[in-house]
Give the backbone structure.
Amino acid sequence: MKPLYPYDCALMFKPPIHKPLPRQGDPRKFAQQGVTLEGFIPVADLPRVVDATENSVGEIQVHLEFKISEEGKRAVTGHASANLALICQRCLESVTVPVESDISLAIVWDEEAAKALPEAPRFQ
């Protein structure tokens, strides 16, 4: 019988990418640690999106990177995308529309820090 080595016994799989985003977290700490989050948000959890769509079925895929910008500010950048079922305003039938958005946010402590941000920030 062939001897077993730890490499032979280790589970060989990647963690699932298709997982819900955490509902809570500290973005300031995430930025300090350079955390990247990837997952989904159920459309049913977003009331304003539910109001704008035909049904609350589906998920919004989200990729977020928390970091410290070159200017020393805590920032969140990323991308969100979904295929949403909307009502066509011409034929009143359901139509699936791909929706995408880039995310670029600064994390600030108070209103004064928010007012000091540039008009069109790019926290790359």
Remarks:
- The first helix runs from residue 6 to 9.
